[in-house]
């Protein structure tokens, strides 16, 4: 049963980290888009996760803990409301009457760090799956 619990936790972590990777990649891909269908620059997206709400002191086995509280879940994907970056470029087709072009509020450096963080967390969850699989195979070997 503990192996299944570990796989459930790792599986949830993989899906959350995969979504974080996709959102960061989308933000980077749209970092220079000055006009979307709404007529405004692209607005960066952020993934909002639920916090693990585990008790301070855990007693009992892992199976007895309410894992619904421990499994990370995506609450929402929200638009970043920080202001757009403004650049003076009167020759740009999207420049206003003052020659100002509004660019997306995507911070490329922050998005690269987010990609690295999500990538490492994804790899850690893959390791959990791999180790759990090895443990299950060893258990089956011992039971033969």
UniProtKB/TrEMBL annotation:
Superkingdom field: Bacteria
PANTHER family named in the record: FLAGELLAR BASAL-BODY ROD PROTEIN FLGC, FLAGELLAR PROTEIN
Domain Flagellar basal-body/hook protein C-terminal: 99-140
Subunit structure of this chain's protein: The basal body constitutes a major portion of the flagellar organelle and consists of four rings (L,P,S, and M) mounted on a central rod. The rod consists of about 26 subunits of FlgG in the distal portion, and FlgB, FlgC and FlgF are thought to build up the proximal portion of the rod with about 6 subunits each.
Organism (species): Thermodesulfatator autotrophicus
Family to which this protein belongs: Belongs to the flagella basal body rod proteins family.
Alphabetical list of InterPro entries matching this protein: Flg_bb/hook_C_dom, FlgC
Signal peptide: none
Gene Ontology cellular-component annotations: bacterial-type flagellum basal body, rod
One example of a Gene Ontology biological process annotation: bacterial-type flagellum-dependent swarming motility
Predominant location: other
Keyword Zinc-finger appears in the UniProt entry: no
A Pfam family: Flg_bbr_C
The protein's name: Flagellar basal-body rod protein FlgC
Annotated compartments: Bacterial flagellum basal body
Annotated keywords: Bacterial flagellum, Cell projection, Cilium, Flagellum
């Amino acid at each position: 049963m503990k192996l299944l619990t570990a796989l459930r936790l790792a599986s949830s972590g993989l899906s959350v980290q995969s979504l974080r990777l996709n959102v960061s990649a989308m933000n980077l891909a749209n970092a220079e888009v000055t006009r979307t269908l709404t007529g405004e620059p692209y607005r960066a997206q952020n993934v909002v996760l639920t916090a693990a709400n585990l008790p301070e002191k855990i007693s009992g086995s892992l199976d007895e803990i309410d894992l619904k509280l421990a499994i990370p879940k995506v609450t929402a994907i929200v638009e970043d409301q920080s202001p757009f970056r403004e650049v003076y470029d009167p020759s740009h087709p999207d420049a206003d009457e003052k020659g100002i072009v509004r660019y997306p509020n995507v911070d490329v450096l922050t998005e690269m760090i987010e990609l690295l963080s999500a990538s490492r967390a994804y790899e850690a969850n893959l390791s959990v799956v791999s180790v759990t699989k090895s443990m299950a195979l060893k258990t089956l070997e011992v039971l033969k």
